Amino acid sequence: MHIEYEDLIRTKVPALHGRDAKNNKLILETVALHGPLIKYDIFKALKSKGVKHYSTISRRVDDLKKRGYLDIAGKRLTIVGKRREESPTYALTWRGFIASLEIETVIGDIPRVLETNPLLVFDLPYKVPKEMLVNVMRELFTPLEMRIIARTLLIGFLRALPRHIESVKQENYLAYLVPGFAEMPDIREKFEEKDLTKLLQIPGFLELALNLVKTYEGQLSEALNGMRVIERELERNIKSRKARAL
Predict the structure, then answer these.
(1) Of the N and C termini of the chain, which has fewer Cβ atoms inside 10 Å?
(2) What is the domain count for the chain?
(3) End-to-end Cα spacing for the chain
């Protein structure tokens, strides 16, 4: 399994392979845990880890943005000499989040990463507040369980991709979640029994659950109405053929 995992990272996550992999990994880790950050903040955080030149970090951030691992989350006023200017702040995209699941400090605190990075939005049929999902995660799973889930989900997701993560549009990642779940290693025996009543104590959870049910109920109703239209049309055609046959 370990050999397969290393091979998946090497072949499916290009930013974490090659001569720039070390600095890319350090940048993704820093932004994941502390973003949104301007380039200079990232450089200051990495000086203690052996990064010597700001220009190196600046180039790496630009490259990671170009390849879709980071994006601009906003701007912050900075002072350079006597000049005041607005510098862009950078945060993880979903591509960057997926790549960062290879980093131990990141999978050790998934809720923090989700809270810290504003571009990680759950754009589902019914808008789900990120805070709600983070609270659910914290109530249901221990840090160790979340680490196991993150690592195994990464394995399943990368197995399901036909190529590497940069070859898939970010908006299409959700399409690979279901096959990704199917490709996940079995981890059920590693989890303790859950007390689901804890979820009822989360403010707004019941309303969220009800709205989700109503949303999917509406979608199913529309699909059913569509099937009924098709059914009536088929019946009409069958009756018409029978009538012509007589």
Answers:
(1) C
(2) 2
(3) 68
State the amino acid at position 84 in one-letter form.
Answer: R
Alpha helices in the chain (DSSP H): 2-12, 21-34, 39-47, 54-66, 94-100, 104-107, 110-116, 130-140, 143-160, 177-183, 205-245
C-alpha 98/C-alpha 119 separation (Å) is 13
Looking at the domain assignment, is residue 108 inside a domain?
Answer: yes
150 burial class (0-12, 13-18, 19+ CB within 10 angstroms)? buried
- Short-list 113, 232, 138, CA closest to 194: 138
Does the residue 199 lie in any domain?
Answer: no
Query: What is the residue type of 10?
Result: R
Domain that holds residue 213: 204-245
- Is 27 found in the same domain as 127? yes
Q: Indicate the pTM of the whole model.
A: 0.75
Nearest partner of 111 among 138, 74, 151, 90, judged by Cα: 138
Mean pLDDT over each residue of the chain, to the nearest integer: 83
With a cut of 50, list the residues of the chain below it in pLDDT. none
What is the predicted pLDDT for the residue at 227? 81
